[in-house]
Amino acid sequence: MPESIERGALTEAVFYILLSLFTPMHGYGIMQNVSKLSSSRVNLGAGTLYGAINTLLEKNWIKSVDGDKNQRKKEYEITELGKSMVEDEIIRLQELIDNGRKIVGGEI
Amino acid sequence: MKYVIRKAYWNYEKEENWLNEMASKGLALTDYSWCRYVFEECEKGKYIYRIELLDNPAKHPESNAYIKFLEGTGVEFVASYMRWIFLRKKASDGPFDLYSDLDSKIKYYKKIRSFWTVFSAMELTIGLSNVLLGIINPINFWCGIIVTSVGLCFLSLRHNVAKKIKKLFQEKKIRE
């Protein structure tokens, strides 16, 4: 198992896409949600999002929500594997924040 | 009222800028075929235009799936030419960029780079071999010179993209 690759940092886009998909959403919903979560700091390009969704589907971190086949927009949601990836990432980010605060200081 | 403008662009970024200038003047592209642009009047600055190179021809199922996805995000598909598609989005919906992070930008520019690699190699091969054939027939020589110049022009476009990729890679060494 290629463990070393799996331990790498997630990109900001992927992290926010995964967070968004704790609630099933379609592509445009993800774009709007990520923009809202980040107070308009992260604005996902549709091309970037499309590539990320396809990679995440392939890796089984997210899945298509079975719904009405005639539904115009496809909806996606996070899988258990995806959730565990988010949890690992939170631990990693927390470590960065803790170390940053410890050395630079700056209590909130 | 429709306006038809015949114009040739080799550089899709300049072409995109031109389309956006036209839109800001109140003329929105509604159709494209080989060097033929069809415009319709619109509210000034109503649309932002983008031109994108796809992996497959625009009619391919994979391209269709992507275009459908884009349409779900408020992007309008305007026209296509082989692997190139013309897109627009209402300016009132905010900025319109297809690629928002370094990884996806690099991947996209690499696609553009290989597009120009293939075309410049093709033109240069045909051009230079015709220049050599010029020993037998002077017509070949002059055709060869023209095709070679086109090839060099493509090569310089490829060079511009390669420079962009290099810059993005440098940024990627320290940032996501």
Commentary on this structure:
The complex is a heterodimer of chains A (108) and B (176). Chain A has 108 residues and is mainly α. Chain A is 57% helix and 8% strand. In chain A, strands 1-3-2 form a three-stranded antiparallel sheet. The radius of gyration of chain B is 19 Å and the shape is globular. The longest helix of chain B has 35 residues, at 138-172. The chains are: A mainly alpha (108), B alpha+beta (176).
Annotate the secondary structure layout:
The complex is a heterodimer of chains A (108) and B (176).
Chain A: H1 3-6, H2 12-20, E1 25-26, H3 27-37, H4 46-58, E2 62-64, E3 75-78, H5 80-104
Antiparallel strand pairs in A: 1-3, 2-3
Helix pairs in contact in A: 2-3
Chain B: E1 2-6, H1 12-24, E2 27-33, E3 36-41, E4 47-53, H2 61-72, E5 76-81, E6 84-90, H3 102-133, H4 138-172
Antiparallel strand pairs in B: 1-3, 2-3, 4-6, 5-6
Helix pairs in contact in B: 3-4
Structure characteristics:
heterodimer; A: 108 residues; mainly alpha; Arc Repressor Mutant, subunit A; 3 strands; 8% strand; globular; B: 176 residues; 2 domains; three-stranded antiparallel β-sheet; 4 helices; 52% helix
Assembly of the depicted chains: heterodimer
The count of DSSP E runs of length 2 or more, i.e. the number of strands of chain B, is: 6
Helix percentage of chain A: 55-70%
User: What's the arrangement of strands in the largest beta sheet of chain A?
Assistant: 1-3-2
Largest interface, and how many residues on either side? A-B, 22 and 20 residues
Written as H for each helix and E for each strand, in order along the chain, the element string of chain A is HHEHHEEH
Strand content of chain A: 5-15%
User: CATH class of chain A, please?
Assistant: Mainly Alpha
User: Percent helix among the residues of chain B?
Assistant: 40-55%
CATH fold-type name of chain A: Arc Repressor Mutant, subunit A
